[in-house]
Amino acid sequence: MAKTIYIAGLGLIGASMALGIKRDHPDYEILGYNRSQASRDIALERGMIDRATDDFASFAPLADIIILSLPIQQTLDFIEKLASIDLKEGVIISDAGSTKSTIVSTAEKYFADKSVRFVGAHPMAGSHKTGAASADVNLFENAYYIFTPSSLTTSDTLEEMRDLLSGLHARFIEIDAEEHDRVTSQISHFPHILASGLMGQTASYAEEHEMARRFAAGGFRDMTRIAESEPGMWTSILLSNRETIMERIEDFKGRLDEIEQAISKGDENQIWNFFNQAREQRQAMEIHKRGGVDSSYDLYIDVPDEEDVILRILELLRGTSLVNIHINEENREDVHGILQISFKNAQDLKRAEQVITENTDYTVVIK
Ligand code: NAD
């Protein structure tokens, strides 16, 4: 039976979800709310949604499923608004916020005595882009789409959500909201703090030491890439997961103190262990075994600086889809080859390694 879906917030995430829903359910009616006219117009023109409004409350009673794809604070505000609207019996309400405990507990509070099925959600894909103009039907492909059930999530809620979102081609998993916030504080929120802190420290240092800018290369780029993330989103993430993130900061301070002491004492063993342990831990980590949220499969090729060498490699890879090609800069201390090619999956990577090894005598490294 065709359903009516209401997406509030036609930004990158909301508009990409609309495209994914349309892919598998072209008969569903998708209603969209957006504050600014620009994203409403784009979403209508590109057929992502069927009808648009700037009055959030007006479409809410029509929907079988409502997805809030707004910044975290607005998600909380809109949950409160929904509680005072006469919604369809048994409506499913979900969201897309990057932190989950506050959103889930707010929904449990406001919808406690209503006929609402609420399930928190965090699609683990995105980019630095914003707005409906950046929407991409493949944004969530193979990415984790995390559901954080609440006391208002009945057994059929997740089944209906998975069916609705099947066209996203995401990997659906369920996890408790608090555990979600703990895990993401360690692998996402705290690394963002580190990246921005490191960037800030380096920028100040470079004012006195100009060469710092020039020598910064692969390792520095890898460590600071996420410092270019959208500041508003990260401010709201930190503010909605404060305790957990502060624990991570405290823990890290202890680790910094330990290595500082080892350096101060000149303790060669401890310093060696510090690096060796991390190296072994990283090698054993899942990140090497499968594509993480935004990971790619990288091949490094030590090509000589000769005419047409890159064309020759690309010719060998004809027919294989490449995600990225990069020529590493002068400082290559921490990378494994001059030419770095990224692939979408492990099969393409293996195939490329084999073809290049068989047809050239260049050193090929997978990392
Ligand atoms: P976006 O900036 O592209 O879109 C945000 C949407 O919220 C827009 O439609 C905007 O009009 C609307 N909005 C902002 N402030 C509003 C207000 N005061 N009142 C009404 N509407 C308002 O952002 P996005 O990337 O689509 O993020 C949406 C949600 O998804 C956020 O909660 C974010 O944490 C989460 N998320 C983002 C990513 C990512 O990498 N971009 C990944 C996973 C989850």
What is the compact description of this entry?
With 367 residues, the chain is of the alpha/beta class. The chain has helices spanning 12-24, 37-45, 56-59, 72-83, 101-110, 155-164, 177-208, 211-215, 218-224, 231-239, 242-265, 268-284, 309-316, 346-359; strands at residues 4-8, 29-33, 51-53, 65-68, 91-95, 116-123, 144-149, 171-174, 297-302, 322-327, 339-343, 363-366. It has 14 helices and twelve strands.
Helix proportion range: 40-55%
So how many helices? 14
**Sheet having the most strands:** 8 strands, mixed
Global Rg:
24 Å
Poorly predicted regions: none
- Please state the second-level CATH architecture of the largest domain: 3-Layer(aba) Sandwich
Going across the major beta sheet, what is the strand order?
A: 3-2-1-4-5-6-7-8
Total count of domains? 3
